[in-house]
Amino acid sequence: MTGFQIVLLVLLLLAVVTAWRGIKTVPQGEIWTVERFGAFTRLLQPGLNLILPYVDRVGRRVNVQEVVLDIPEQSVITRDNATVLVDGIVYYRVMAPEKAAYQVQNLKQALEALAMTNIRAVIGEMDLDATLSGRERINSSLLLTLDGATDPWGVKVSRVEIRKVEPPENLVRAMNLQMTAERERRATVMRAEGDRAAAIQRAEGEKQALVLAAEGRQQAAMRDAEARERLAEAEAEATQMVAAAATGAGEAALRYFIADKYVRAFEALAGNPTSKLVVVPMEASALAGGITGALELLRGGPGGGGGAGGAPPPPWSPPPAGPAAATLPGGGPWNQG
């Protein structure tokens, strides 16, 4: 190989090395820093970039995507001296790559230590019950603290989540016993309240039943009184009508009405198919005279011997003393005695 060829090969190698050192391709999601003689000068955005070879060099490769950082599990003591095991997750993103590259030496380690310290500080100010039920409060407090602390590093903490808050086993057993006792107490109280409400409802029902029964009796008594009043009025009107009729016809009319009532009652008594023997007291024989007088009154009138223009009916003679028998329409004997 001649000297010219050697020089040409060296120049070709130098050109390749120069191009390799001066042309940089930055992948998407990263930003590179450029250092000139060890000092930061500018940032290289994703894509093809050119720098001065042998003068400039790539300093730090910073990931600007959102990063998930696991917080290791640690033992934390609450304000009421209960020990719990806590771990979590921090979501962050680099907003100023030059600050994240040169303001902090190890960004992930710094964020991890900062998050663990603040978790102990926040939970140490809370009771165990508040710690177990107040995860949202813990997350909000940690987010506010970490976001403010990482602002000089050019980092934006977008979210903090506590994954596990686990008390020791003996404390879990005690909490289970307490929860069981509390539920039994609530069940007892609810049963007592239910019995009380049922007793009140039964008493109210009995009270309403008594009130309704009293009102029903009152209305029934009022209806009975009204019925008796209407019956008394009807009897009074009937009595007035009979009196008016008696005024015109005299004693004969009264005898007619009494005889008619007697005959109707006797017909109803004699017409009973279960009674074949009817016993009539001797005093009742005097009513027969009224029947005879009524018949004489009916036979009297225009063209007859009775009434107002004829002769008075002959006096009625009572039957001889002693029992007398007659045959009823039903076939049974009629005894007077």
What does the model show?
53% of the residues lie in helices and 22% in strands. With 337 residues, the protein is an alpha+beta fold. The protein has 4 domains: 48 residues, no CATH class; 101 residues, Band 7 domain (Tetrahydropterin Synthase, Chain A); 49 residues; 61 residues, no CATH class. Helix 3 packs across helix 5, helix 6 packs across helix 7 and helix 7 crosses helix 8. The radius of gyration is 63 Å and the shape is rod-shaped.
Task: Detail the topology: elements first, then pairings.
Elements: H1 3-22, E1 23-26, E2 30-36, E3 39-44, E4 47-50, E5 56-63, E6 67-77, E7 83-94, H2 97-102, H3 107-124, H4 128-133, H5 135-149, E8 155-166, H6 169-249, H7 251-270, E9 278-280, H8 286-299, E10 324-327, E11 333-336
Helix content: 40-55%
Write down the Rg: 63 Å
Indicate the structural class.
alpha+beta
* Strand line-up across the major sheet: 3-2-5
What's the rounded overall pLDDT mean?
79
At the fourth CATH level, what is the homologous superfamily of the largest domain? Band 7 domain
List SSEs in N-to-C order.
Answer: HEEEEEEEHHHHEHHEHEE
Using the 3D structure, state the CATH architecture of the largest domain.
2-Layer Sandwich
Query: Unreliable runs, pLDDT <50, ≥5 residues?
Result: 301-337
CA(first)-CA(last) distance: 182 Å
Domains (count): 4
Helical element count?
A: 8
What is the CATH class of the largest domain? Alpha Beta
Our estimate of the beta-strand percent is 15-25%
Quick synopsis:
The chain is α+β, with helices and mostly antiparallel strands.
